[in-house]
């Protein structure tokens, strides 16, 4: 096992992990995994070549963290979409080698006068990252205040695919979803068969199973996603027009990724009591 701390793009601190099972790149800024490459395989994660690496900006790709809300500001106060964790510096709290040869890195961030001015709750947030035969992620929220608070959240993961036209997402057949691309906050629809993507897709799926999969015909591989602590998942691809309007995506990047996000979104609101903690967990494997 080797753990190397380096200065990455934009001068941001990065942690490179290499062990017998896989290699990974973790950005301390944003608490964000940027790369997970099992030995003998291509990277499971996608990061745009146009991604911003600058304080105050979100990095387009890997596993951005949306917290303590997912989507628009729930109180309509003009605060940024997806909360305030994906564009600030975290701290390295722990690294360890595990008996199975995997490597765990724990990044974290605690409430401060700055965060309390944005969101008036005391907290301790940890991102536990275990790099091994699989990539295991746990987003751990601890309420360090004296009153209950509620959150929505996500691991907004960008998965690399060889060709979006040859990619399907399975496991959500028959589930209900909110189609945000088509009708905003309109009624729910039912998923018919596997998800194929040939236009903009922005959907919140409800009552999801514990395992989903991305079947990648071009790279001839299947990425399996198992999760716990969530009742919802989001599937997103911006397609051509929106991708072309995003400066931190190349025009054709939409053909190279699909986001399958482990979420507490929409009505999947988490209540965290004073002194309690909540774990949102995902594991990615080939």
Automatic annotation (TrEMBL):
InterPro entries: Aldose_1/G6P_1-epimerase, G6P_1-epimerase, Gal_mutarotase_sf_dom, GH-type_carb-bd
Recorded superkingdom: Bacteria
Pfam families hit by this protein: Aldose_epim
Entry keyword annotation includes Isomerase: yes
EC nos: 5.1.3.15
Keywords annotated in UniProt: Isomerase
Catalytic activity: alpha-D-glucose 6-phosphate = beta-D-glucose 6-phosphate
The keyword Isomerase is annotated on this UniProt entry: yes
PANTHER family for this protein: APOSPORY-ASSOCIATED PROTEIN C-RELATED, GLUCOSE-6-PHOSPHATE 1-EPIMERASE
Family: Belongs to the glucose-6-phosphate 1-epimerase family.
Identification of the protein by name: Putative glucose-6-phosphate 1-epimerase
Higher taxonomy: Bacteria, Pseudomonadati, Pseudomonadota, Gammaproteobacteria, Thiotrichales
